[in-house]
Amino acid sequence: MGRFVVKRLLQLVPTLFGLSVLLFIWPRQLPGGPETALLGDRGTPEQLALIRRSLGLDEPLIVQYGRFWQRLIHLDLGTSISTKRPVLTEFADRFPATAELTLTAMIIAVGVGIPLGYLAAKRRGSFLDQLSVGGSLIGITIPIFFLGYVLKAVAAEHLGWFPSIGRQDPTLDATHVTGFYVLDGLLTREWDASLNALWHLVLPGLTLASIPLAAIVRITRASVIEVLGAEHVRTAEAKGLTDRVLRGRHVLRNAMLPVSTTIGLLTGSLLSGAVLTETVFAFAGIGAFLAQAIAELDYPVLMGFILIIALIYVLVNLVVDVSYGLIDPRIRVR
């Protein structure tokens, strides 16, 4: 298993190298470049030239790329143009909110999607099957921002069941230790703060979970149907194995390979795709800050956040590859 993990880690090196090249070239190809973002459209040629010299943009590209890597090694991702704070600090402050929201969305998607997809496959052609397929189509096609506004208007503003904005009621004066509000409440035994944070996660979590839930239902259903038709499953049924043994040992274990791939890809994409959800619910995470950075042309934030999110995405897919080896040991020797 150790050699399998090391092999996968080595395969990530070209991916990260290619990503670094793209992130290095990208801001230099945008209209006006980083110097225009700093000075605005009214900067004089002299001021623009001064900024270029101070940023080292007048040096050869190979020298600039070397300094780019030197900063990355020292975890220096630059300074935000809008807040004047280090990009890494901004990310660290906002990552817990997005991670908490992403985890909530994936718990909903996996906890509902896999059982529903399995039941739909087992009862193929039934009303439950048709309902799950139709619901998954709606979940995939409905825009995130539209669903968010509908849930916010109905469940929060009209019915008053859930809070409409924020991560926690500011009047609670809760103690924040890690930045993960639910965990903070558990660590400090402020149970009301933890429950309040969970209550604030319901609507944005449901909104963000809509697409992955629909995808997991469809992938699980298709995978289980394929496995149920396999010869080894029919043989196991003929031997009279109980439904519990058949489901756990022969069906779900083999059907989980494509499902685990989907879960891994969706988890990575949710980290970068929470922009609309966090904007609708005023959720102070990475997505909301990225939306602000795009509006303000804050290139250091965009570059830094994209790099870190891409790294997380790659690591999540590494975990998925490792899970392949745990689900099906034959993959380790390929």
Helix content: over 70%
The count of strands amounts to: 0
Mean pLDDT equals 77
CATH architectural label of the largest domain: Orthogonal Bundle
Number of helical segments?
14
Top-tier CATH class of the largest domain: Mainly Alpha
SS class: mainly alpha
Number of domains: 2
User: What sort of overall outline do the alpha carbons produce when their principal axes are compared?
Assistant: globular
Largest β sheet strand count, sense and barrel closure: none
Uncertain parts: none
- Which radius of gyration do the C-alpha atoms yield? 24 Å
Distance between the termini: 12 Å
Q: What is the H level of CATH, i.e. the homologous superfamily of the largest domain?
A: MetI-like
CATH fold group of the largest domain: MetI-like fold
% residues in beta strands: under 5%
Order of helices and strands: HHHHHHHHHHHHHH
